[in-house]
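Student: I would love a firmer grasp of how sequence relates to backbone shape in proteins. I am handing you a single protein, as its sequence and its fold in token form. I am told such tokens are a discrete way to write the fold. I hope you can help me see how the letters and the tokens relate. Take your time, and here it is.
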Amino acid sequence: YEDKVRISVSNLDLNFLDALPEDMKSGAMGSLQDLILKVVAPKFDMDLEMVYGADQTNPYRLQAIEHAQSPINRHPVTG
């Protein structure tokens, strides 16, 4: 089995970003993304990527998503 999955481990709805002027949104989104990656991600013992709108339901939902991995656990010796 070769397919991989990515699991969302945290969702933060940052809908207040929509109230910002257009010229400030992308800067604020980037700053929050960096801050949360530095402050929140280390609390989880895994490599995470912070992605806005990954589930396509809310463009202001910041999700902490694991890197792609096999959905099947295999024994490290016997496979």
